[in-house]
Specification:
The complex is a heterodimer of chains A (171) and B (86). By secondary structure, chain A is an alpha+beta fold. Chain A has a single domain, classed as Glutaredoxin, CATH 3.40.30. Chain A contains six helices and eleven strands. With 86 residues, chain B is of the alpha+beta class. Chain B has one domain (7-82): 3-Layer(aba) Sandwich (Glutaredoxin). Chain B is built from three helices and four strands; from the N terminus they run βαβαββα. Chain B has helices at residues 16-27, 45-51, 71-82; strands spanning 7-11, 32-36, 58-61, 66-69. Chain B has a four-stranded mixed beta sheet, sandwiched between helices. In chain B, a hairpin with a 4-residue loop joins β3 and β4 (66-69). In chain B, α1 (16-27) packs parallel to α3. Classes of the chains: A alpha+beta (171), B alpha+beta (86). The interface between A and B is medium-sized, with 13 and 14 residues.
């Protein structure tokens, strides 16, 4: 039986592009034990950062994305710090980290201000008063220059993990 | 993190004892970072590693090498260390 499955096209977005400087931001950064305010620039001071933006924790897009990112273990295999960001609050991030066994910290941006800065905010599912991150991946080098950028063009949509890996290899 | 402040405060949301410590830190204009933990004691291993206990507030002060729990103790310590001459 053929399963009807309509994918929703997302409107064009003017997002941060390769070669541009990634906007700096400060948000609570959640690990498996606590959270504290951290800036992107403080992370890039230590080396390249892969910023993985996803929709709110709890539904399959965030879960599938983190299962894949976790299993690829980029932080161990490449000179990169892998960090997530979504509108989920720090408590929800701690749950996701525990439940999925994630070794990476996650930024919490409930008001989606970072999404706006990066041009990847979107009202994905029409929940009143909720602005989300469009799924996106940015590889930012130590100078905060964007070396790789991907944003979802449809919903649902997932990063091309092999493309990301190629970009990491090219660092 | 680069240029991390010397004082780290472990705190909970809506914890009056934590706020008491924050007031004194602010009073002396001390540079500190806040690490938020969760209400459940069993989820506070980060605090236990630092202070030996799971209670908050707890502070670690790299200026002096002191780690401390209990808000009354911390407040007294901050006054004694950073209060200077009245």
């Amino acid at each position: 039986m053929e399963l009807e499955f309509d994918v929703v096209d997302l409107p064009e977005a003017t997002h941060v592009e390769v070669g541009e400087t990634a906007p700096d931001f400060t948000r609570p950064l959640v690990n498996d034990e606590y959270w504290e305010d951290a800036s992107l620039s403080a992370l890039t001071d230590d080396g390249p950062v892969l910023l993985v933006a996803h929709t709110m924790n709890g539904a399959f897009p965030a879960t599938y994305t983190w299962n894949e990112v976790r299993d690829r273990d980029w932080g161990e295999r490449f000179d990169v710090q892998v960090v997530g960001i979504s509108v989920s609050d720090p408590y929800a991030h701690k749950r996701l980290i525990e439940e999925r066994g994630i070794d990476n910290p996650l930024f919490s941006d409930p008001a989606a201000g970072v999404a706006a800065e990066y041009g990847i905010e979107h009202d994905l599912d029409g929940m009143a008063g909720v602005t989300e991150f469009r799924p996106a991946v940015f590889l930012v080098d130590a100078d905060r220059t964007v070396r790789y950028a991907w944003t979802a063009q449809e919903w649902p949509d997932f990063p091309d993990y092999d493309d990301v890996e190629a970009a990491l290899e090219a660092l | 993190m680069s240029e991390a402040p010397p004082i780290t405060l472990y705190r909970l949301q809506a914890c009056p004892f934590c706020e008491r410590v924050v007031r004194v830190l602010d009073e002396y204009d001390l540079d500190y970072r806040s690490r938020f933990v969760e209400p459940l004691h069993s989820r506070r291993n980060a605090v236990k590693r630092v202070s030996g206990k799971r209670t908050v507030p707890a502070i670690a002060d790299e200026n002096t090498g002191v780690t401390m729990t209990e808000s009354a103790n911390i407040v007294e310590y901050l006054h004694a260390t950073y209060g200077g001459e009245a």
